[in-house]
Amino acid sequence: DAGITQSPRHKVTETGTPVTLRCHQTENHRYMYWYRQDPGHGLRLIHYSYGVKDTDKGEVSDGYSVSRSKTEDFLLTLESATSSQTSVYFCAISDSGGAGGRTEAFFGQGTRLTVV
Amino acid sequence: AQSVTQPDIHITVSEGASLELRCNYSYGATPYLFWYVQSPGQGLQLLLKYFSGDTLVQGIKGFEAEFKRSQSSFNLRKPSVHWSDAAEYFCAVGRGSTLGRLYFGRGTQLTVWP
Fold it and tell me: If both were cysteines, with which of A92, B44, B85, B96 could A33 make a disulfide (CB 3.0 to 4.6 Å apart)?
């Protein structure tokens, strides 16, 4: 398995509270991503990062913010959690590779977040 | 707009039978195509990928997929299914040059009868 660790793996929180999920990689890959998985929707991209302090929005970014202060860490924050953010969150990494090559995305084990 | 369609939400096959999971995509440029598999409570594992070249690609666990540009399809196949193949399968299209920016289909749940 690629060296990706998500924490926590499970979390229950109350509506309106802030929540931060962490993704840590040991592969020194350039790109990091946050996805959410919901039944009937597959996975949808929330935010991604293409370098330290370089981030951009995905297709479902409303209500989420991210930060990347180090290559190995990518944080996802829900500023004020809502029930619609109950989901399984996956972190992924990929790299640009050498000699023009690219690596495909590797996924973490996921964080199950429940907002009550 | 880009999209990925997996028309079959749930497929049931008997162990030893052949399998084909369908995937159609809508993407303006030459697509990067992927199949991922997810076992319960686990993350996603890459089965195979298509970037260019030979349109029949081989993956892990005995899976293969064929890219058909004329049909905008990338169907996954396996000649003989094993009980351990029971899982959820996702087709994805890569957007842009970073291969982690993916559009996913909704997934196909595979059940294998003994």
Answer: A92
Dihedral angle sign, alpha carbons of residues B45, B64, B20, B76:
positive
Quickly tell me which residue has 């429940």 as its tokens.
A114
Q: Supply the DSSP symbol for A93.
A: E
CB-based contact (8 Å) between A57 and chain B? Answer: no
Q: What is the pLDDT of residues A12-70, one digit of tens each?
A: 999 999 999 999 999 999 999 999 999 988 999 999 999 999 999 999 999 999 999 99
Asked if the Cβ–Cβ distance from B43 to A43 is below 8 Å, we say no
Amino acid letter for position B64: E
User: Which tens digits make up the pLDDT trace of B21-80?
Assistant: 999 999 877 788 999 999 988 889 999 999 888 899 999 999 999 999 999 999 999 999
- Provide mean pLDDT across the span B82-110: 91
Q: Which two structure tokens, joined as six digits, stand for A101?
A: 């090559």
A90 and chain B in contact, CB less than 8 A: yes
Q: Cα separation of A109 and B42, whole Å?
A: 5
Asked whether the beta carbons of residue A44 and residue B104 sit closer than 8 angstroms, the reply is: yes
Residue of A nearest to B90 (CA): A42
Closest by CA position to A105, among listed A47, A23, A32: A32
Other C-beta atoms closer than 10 Å to the C-beta of A77 total: 15
